[in-house]
TrEMBL record:
Ranges where the Resolvase/invertase-type recombinase catalytic domain occurs: 3-153
Organism in which the protein naturally occurs: Haloarcula argentinensis
A Pfam family per the record: Resolvase
Protein name (database record): Resolvase/invertase-type recombinase catalytic domain-containing protein
InterPro entries membership: Recombinase_CS (IPR006118), Resolv_N (IPR006119), Resolvase-like_N_sf (IPR036162), SSR_resolvase (IPR050639)
Lineage: Archaea, Methanobacteriati, Methanobacteriota, Stenosarchaea group, Halobacteria
Entry annotated with the keyword DNA-binding: yes
Length: 228
């Protein structure tokens, strides 16, 4: 008899992966009557909507090896986040490799060796569309949040050389801010090369062009904020 694979994943740092794992383990033992010794637990804790994760890859490798009887996940989004991916992966697990699939929160149970019947296919399509709409909504909310932050004057992404960001996301000059000013002066006013400006200012040579391109950020927007 092959193993039952439990795949647990959370998408944010504040979500509890251990609780999800324990709930799936209890479900496999009590509802599916699986021996605890026959359970393999795979975990991922990462953000994003792609399935390029180590635990996920290992799950699919075990499915394709033929040593797995059943896969247990919490919800269909653990299989994929868009309509096409979910259908392809579920069909591969269930019909190509004859592996059972339990999607606990979505109440989808397919026994090992069974094909997808018409009800399963219709229900899967509904779940897949819902997952894709949810993923698009999350992406749109993220984009809108970034736009709102930019409009509020907050910096989105890694701060430029010579700055850090405070707890609210606003740029604050740091100890390298003066170096950036020296590099801008060397290139813009003295006409020095990036290499010479880097030696003079202490700014990394590859960073000098970026600093110069953003000179208004240093000379205008934060001109009065140079650290002591």
């Amino acid at each position: 008899m092959g193993e039952t694979v439990i795949y647990a994943r959370v998408s944010t740092a504040d979500q509890d992966l251990s609780n999800q794992q324990e709930n799936l383990h209890e479900y496999a033992v009590t509802r599916l009557d699986v021996d605890a010794d026959d359970i393999t637990v795979l975990r991922d804790k990462s953000t994003g909507t792609n399935t390029d994760r180590s635990g996920y890859r290992e799950m699919m490798e075990l499915v394709r090896s033929g040593d797995v009887d059943r896969v247990v996940v919490r919800e269909v989004t653990r299989i994929g986040r868009n309509f096409r991916d979910i259908h392809e992966i579920v069909h591969e697990i269930v019909e190509d490799h004859n592996v059972g699939l339990s999607i606990v929160n979505d109440n989808l149970e397919i026994e090992p060796g069974d094909d997808l019947n018409m009800r399963d296919k219709m229900f899967l399509s509904m779940l897949a569309w819902g997952a894709e709409l949810e993923a698009k909504k999350i992406k749109q909310n993220t984009i809108e949040g970034l736009r709102a932050a930019e409009e509020a004057g907050k910096w989105v992404g890694h701060p430029p050389y010579g700055f850090t960001t405070d707890d609210d996301g606003y740029l604050q000059p740091n100890e390298n801010f003066g170096n950036a000013l020296d590099a801008i002066e060397a290139v813009e006013e003295l006409g020095w090369s990036d290499r010479k400006a880097a030696r003079h200012s202490g700014v990394p040579r590859r960073t000098v062009p970026n600093v110069v391109d953003r000179k208004d950020l240093y000379l205008t927007e934060h001109a009065d904020e140079k650290p002591d």
